[in-house]
Amino acid sequence: MKPLDIVFALLVASIWGVNFSVIKLGLLELPPVLFSALRFAIVAIPAVLLVPFPKTAWRNVLAVGFFLGVIKFSLLFVAMKVGASAGLSSLLLQAQVMFTIVLSAIWFKEKVTKYQLIGILIACTGFLLFFTASSENLSLTALLLLLLAGLSWAVSNLFMKQAGGVNVLHFMVWVSLIPPLPLLLFSYHFENDQPLQLLLNASGATWLALAYVGFISTLLAFAWWGRLLAKYSAATVTPFALLVPVVGMFTASLVFDERLTGSEWAGTSLVLLGLICCVFGAKLRARLAR
Asked: At what angle do helices 221-231 and 168-175 cross, to 10 degrees?
């Protein structure tokens, strides 16, 4: 990758790492699906009136809007609302790295190296530890929701890559137009039938959280991420997301004083080791062989 693209990849990962603590703060006052709907609404309106439709098929916009906006973020926000800590959410959502590599091998016929396969197996062992552990930081329900959110993110990565060399800023604006209506309808029927009252009572901190999650984490970060996926293979780009849980856990420890149990530390270490193996396994092997 070019040095500037590496900088963008690292910046995106840092933005997303901080994002989990910001989401946690926003969910203190708003229900999860309504929060998710609003994050996309403030991006799409009124920008969609000023931005031309990207030069790609409608199905790519609809698919990313559905899998990323409706499914992935709803599952993530619900998981955090039912008790998943910000730090562990930032880690477990990175199952998308392994899901993306495997799905890209099937869909785009991209080669999966033996080091990526080893890394996936190591990380899966770490995920299994979370299945056997039950703590105040993570319930089994939250764990399953986070893994499904990671799978949905992986599917959206494939459609973003398939969209090709489009203007990704325009692409993300139009993608953001898809989720608000179905999410608002769902929220109205199953969360709260007086959303306007909730918004009127929301504090300035909640609105700042929405602004960060909407404009910075959604619009800018995903636009940069989509541009990188269009230029490089999924196996090259997605592993940069391993920085997300590092930033996420550090931020959560500062903001919420989150602490992990012994089994959670073991699982975290294995997941990170697996992700590192996916990214650097071949390079480390080559250096050791010199």
From this structure: 120
Considering just the CA atoms, what is the radius of gyration of the chain in Å?
18
**pTM above the 0.90 mark?**
no
| DSSP-assigned beta bridge partners for residue 138 | 135
Better-scored residue on pLDDT, 130 or 21: 21
Tell me the two tokens of residue 238.
Answer: 């997605």
Reported as a single tens digit per residue, the pLDDT across 23-45 is 999 999 999 999 999 989 988 88
Distance CA 277, CA 115 (A): 6
End-to-end CA distance of the chain: 23
Q: Is the pLDDT of residue 69 over 80?
A: yes
CA 59 to chain centre: 21
**What is the phi/psi pair of residue 138, to 5°?**
-160, 125
- Inform me whether the pLDDT recorded for 284 exceeds 80: no
Reading the block at residue 1, the tokens are 């990758």
Give the relative orientation of helices 221-231 and 140-162 as an angle to the nearest 10 degrees.
60
- Residue identified by tokens 């396969």 is 117
How far is the C-alpha of 130 from the C-alpha of 223, rounded, in Å? 32
DSSP string of 169-185, one letter each residue? HHHHHHHTTSSHHHHHH
Closest by Cα among 256, 252, 243 to 93: 243
Spatial neighbors of 181 by CB under 8 A, at least 6 apart, are none
In 3-state terms, what secondary structure has residue 261? coil
What is the CA angle 226-232-233, rounded to 5?
100
Q: How is residue 163 written in tokens?
A: 């969209």
Dihedral sign from CA coordinates of 220, 84, 61, 157: positive
SS3 138: strand
Q: What pLDDT is recorded for position 183? A: 93
